[in-house]
C-alpha cells in the first residue's frame, strides 16, 4: 500500500507530513530559501509573525506561483500569532488585535488566507481565551482554513474546553526522540488534535551552533550528539541515510508533520527524502527509550510548562 504523505487536519484540510521551517532564516534570505525549498518539492511552509520573515516567504510564494511552478491550491501555508507577553514587557493581544495581526500577516505573505493559523505560545492567562476567540472568528471569515495552537499543554487545552470554545485542530510542539511528550501526545490523539513537530533535529551535533542561535540544550546533550556510537549515527549507517533523515522519519512514522529547516539546497533535498525508507519496529522501540523529558528549543524552558 502506498504510504500517505499527508494527514487529515480537519474535514477537507490535509496537512503535508513534510514541511519546511523558516525559524532563524532572516527576511532578506527567506525568499531565496523558500523558493529553493519549493523547487526541492516542499509544499508545506511554516513561518510566524515573530520570525520577521513573512515578507520574504510571501515573495517566494508570489514568484513561484507567477512562474507556474506551483498553484496556491498545492501549497499549505502556516503562520502564527505572536500573543504578546506581559512578563517580557509586551502588550498581550486581544480578540481585536489578534484579528488585525492575521490581516497584517496576510498582507506580508501576499495571500488571501493561510491554511493554518496558530497561537504561538500560551503566554498570557488573562488573554488566552480572547486570542482563541479571535482565531475562531478568523476561521469563520475564511482567513484561515484551520486553526490551532503551539506549545499548549493539556491544562491550556482544558481552559478552552471549560470556556465552551471549539478545540484546536493542531498543536505545534517540540517533538524529537529526546523530548517525546507521551502524555501530551496521547491526550492530543484522544481529542483528535494533530501534533505537529518542531525542532526535530535537536539531537544532532550541528543543531543551532551558529552565533545567536540560542537554546537551553545542555553541554551533555551536545557531547552526546558528537559521540561516534550515537544510536542515530548507527541507524543512519544501516539505512544509508543521514542522521537528520532518521530523526525526521521517526516523526513521520509517529504521524507528526515535521518542519526541517535548511538554507542549503542539497540538505533541503536530503531532508525531503523521507518516504524512500522506513525505520523498523526494533529501531522505533529503541528510540522510545531515549526520551529525556522537556524540550530545549526555548532559552526560557519548554513553554508547554507555562502556567
Structure description:
By secondary structure, this protein is an alpha/beta fold. The protein is 38% helix and 14% strand. It is built from eleven helices and nine strands. It has a seven-stranded parallel beta sheet with strand order 3-4-5-6-7-8-9. It is globular, with a radius of gyration of 19 Å. 44% of the residues are buried.
Topology:
Layout: E1 6-10, E2 13-16, E3 19-21, H1 27-39, E4 44-46, H2 54-66, E5 76-81, H3 95-109, E6 114-119, H4 128-140, E7 144-150, H5 154-162, E8 170-174, H6 182-191, E9 194-198, H7 219-226, H8 231-239, H9 243-253, H10 265-272, H11 281-288
Parallel strand pairs: 3-4, 4-5, 5-6, 6-7, 7-8, 8-9
Antiparallel strand pairs: 1-2
Helix pairs in contact: 1-2, 2-3, 3-4, 8-9
Give the helices and strands as they follow along the chain: EEEHEHEHEHEHEHEHHHHH
Poorly predicted sequence stretches spanning 5 or more consecutive residues: none
Rg from alpha-carbon coordinates: 19 Å
Shape summary: globular
Mean pLDDT comes to 96
Structural class: alpha/beta
As laid out across the biggest beta sheet, the strand order is 3-4-5-6-7-8-9
Helix content: 25-40%
N- to C-terminal distance? 44 Å
- Number of continuous helical runs: 11
Number of strands: 9
The main β sheet shows up as: 7 strands, parallel
Q: How large a portion of the residues is in β-strands, by DSSP E?
A: 5-15%
Q: How would you summarize what this structure contains?
A:
With 307 residues, this protein is of the alpha/beta class.
Features:
seven-stranded parallel beta sheet, 307 residues, 9 strands, alpha/beta, two-stranded antiparallel sheet, 11 helices, globular, 38% helix
